[in-house]
Amino acid sequence: MESFVFLLLSFFTTCAGFDVSVPKGRVVAIRGQPVILGCEFTPNPDLSPLVLTWQRVEDSRVVHSFYYQKDQLEYQSPDYRNRTSLFVSELRNGNATLRIEPVGLGDVGGYLCTVSYNEGTGKAQVRLDYGAFYTEPRLSISMNCSSITLLYEAEGYPEPEVGWFGEHDEVLSNHIDLIDKAKGTTGLYYLKSYFVSPSPSLNVTFRLKNHLLNQVLHRPVSITYGGENCRTLNAVTTALIVFCVLSVLLILIILFLLAKRQKDSRDLSYTLTNGSTNGRLSPSRPTVGL
Ligand SMILES: *[C@@H]1O[C@H](CO)[C@@H](O)[C@H](O)[C@H]1NC(C)=O
Ligand SMILES: *[C@@H]1O[C@H](CO)[C@@H](O)[C@H](O)[C@H]1NC(C)=O
Ligand SMILES: *[C@@H]1O[C@H](CO)[C@@H](O)[C@H](O)[C@H]1NC(C)=O
Ligand SMILES: *[C@@H]1O[C@H](CO)[C@@H](O)[C@H](O)[C@H]1NC(C)=O
After folding, report:
1. Which residues are registered as beta bridge partners of 150?
2. How far lies 188's CA from each of 32, 91, 127, 155, in Å?
3. Contacts (Cβ under 8 Å, ≥6 apart) of 164
4. Which residues does a 6 A CB cutoff place in the pocket of ligand 2?
5. CB distance 58 to ligand 4 below 6 Å
6. Which ligand has the shortest distance to the CA of 91?
7. Exposed, middle or buried: residue 266 (CB in 10 Å: 0-12, 13-18, 19+)?
8. pTM over 0.90
9. What start and end residues bound the annotated signal peptide (predicted)?
10. What's the CA gap between 222 and 167, in Å, rounded?
């Protein structure tokens, strides 16, 4: 019975010659560019009975509507205010294409195009995705005596595939930190990817793929670092240590000799005191010097 009603309905719609359609596949909105959501219906040069509504599938928010031969912006969801437009002159040709600019992460989802004429109502849905091309990755290099750290930073959307590859295309690291600093309001992830190499020279390639937008970035990095600074540093350290040890030794020797001299002069005065009994200093007493 149900399928009979359905058949009857489709027969009726086909008979009335009223049809609404959207292009196949999903639409990808790109940050910084307007997005076009196509929707076509059987053309009718008389616009007065036309009621056209674009809505979000998930919650029926009104994205844009047109009836009484004009845009009805007061019923539009505030989320879409000042961002949408129809090509009004195209409506006569059965073209209900909607333009949205600027686009953001919040625009991701389903869009329903509903067109009503006296002949009937037709609906069609289109899915919108969102992406942002990753910016040119910024490279920072930091080295110490034991390793070299490479860091790339970039912004884009959605999560990319990243990797660090060696000379034979072997995977060295897939480290990735994705931070959504502004909780989706900017529609961008902040990406950080590290690679730490224990060797003082390296030849690696950083690769980033944003599959949604078919974006691929290859950034080769080649560093030859002899570690001269480390060697100089080591030499300086060794010299300092030797100098310190020698200084300490010298001070010890001086202290020892000073102590010895003091002791000797005490002995001398003792001799002198004793000597006073026989009236003269013993000539065999050696003189004390450093
Ligand atoms: C939309 O544009 C009007 C006029 O340009 C402006 O007064 C209004 O604040 C804007 N609304 C939003 C939500 O940006
Ligand atoms: C509908 O109108 C838009 C804007 O002029 C145009 O880009 C698009 O190609 C039209 N669609 C068709 C199917 O003609
Ligand atoms: C050198 O840098 C690496 C990576 O930042 C760190 O893990 C390591 O502790 C550092 N070594 C020295 C001697 O500072
Ligand atoms: C790095 O590797 C690439 C190929 O893997 C090679 O063409 C290039 O000459 C290498 N560069 C250095 C400095 O070794």
Report:
1. 141, 195
2. 12, 35, 20, 6
3. 150, 171, 172, 173, 174, 175, 193, 195, 204, 205, 206, 207
4. 38, 40, 87, 90, 95, 97
5. no
6. 2
7. exposed
8. no
9. 1-17
10. 10
Nearest-5° Cα angle at 182, 178 to 187? 75
How far apart are the C-alpha atoms of 79 and 75, rounded to whole Å? 11
CB-based contacts of 15, cutoff 8 Å, min separation 6: none
- Measured in whole angstroms, the distance separating CA 253 from the mean position of its chain's CA atoms is 63
Four-point Cα dihedral 15, 21, 24, 30, nearest 10: 180
204-263 pLDDT, tens digit per residue, is 999 999 999 999 999 999 988 766 666 666 666 777 877 778 888 888 888 888 888 887
Tokens 């999903």 sit at which residue? Answer: 26
3 CB-near residues (< 8 Å, 6+ apart): none
Nearest ligand for residue 223 CA? 4
DSSP state of 187: -
Beta bridge partners of 221: 204
Ligand 2 pocket test: pick from 22, 39, 85, 90 the residue with the most ligand atoms within 8 Å of its Cβ. Answer: 90
Instruction: List, for residues 64-108, the tens digit of each pLDDT value.
Output: 999 999 999 999 999 999 999 999 999 999 999 999 999 999 999
> From CA 162, how far away is CA 173, in angstroms rounded?
9
Helix (H, G, I), strand (E, B) or coil at 218: strand
Peptide bond into 102 cis (omega under 30): yes
31 token code pair: 């940050």
* Centroid of ligand 2 to alpha carbon of 71 (angstroms): 18
Interatomic CA distance for residues 234 and 228, integer angstroms? 10
Q: How far is ligand 2, taken at its centre, from the CA of residue 128, in Å?
A: 18
